[in-house]
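Subject: for your reference before the review

Hello V.,

The reviewers asked for a structural picture of the protein, and I figured it would be easier to keep everything in one thread rather than splitting it across files. Below is the amino acid sequence we used in the manuscript, unchanged from the supplementary table.
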Amino acid sequence: MAMSKGIPGLQRVDHVGITVPNLEDATRFFIDVLGCEYMYTLGPFQSDENWMQEHLNVHPRAIMKELHFFKLNGVAIFEVFEYSAPEQDGTVPRNSDVGGHHVALYVEDMGAALAHLKLHNIQILGEPTASKGPSEGQHWVYFLSPWGMQFELVTYPNGKAFDHNPEKFVKKVKE
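And here is what came back from the structure prediction:
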């Protein structure tokens, strides 16, 4: 049987799950800083068997204390967890670490967005950077959540170079 490319029926990203050290502090960040709408809460949950390890790849005695769902502008959904677990690692990965990640948020006005972050005492990493190559026309800057997770503000109000001339940047990739 020939292998198909891609997951059959895949439509879109449904939500992004994030584990935080303190759900109350994270809730303030998602609502007050990012402007998310609180949706609902689940938890706590724990298992006497190996369900947690088998289904979530966490320590079998992990406790999911509580989780909140947040909606951002009716588009993105964040599922934000607070766990307690034996051998829990509290180190937030950097982009260069295996499993490193960030959440990029598109803004219309970079200056207004940065002023808002500063008003909330959010750590901004450097100044906005102008992209080159296929992303020319884009400006971006990273910032950190109160627990150290990386987020990015991105803007390209007139599109990126790739949007205007994609054939110039397309390279053949191995399929």
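For the response letter, the relevant points are probably these. The longest helix spans residues 23-33. The chain has a mean pLDDT of 95.

Happy to draft the paragraph if you're swamped.

O.
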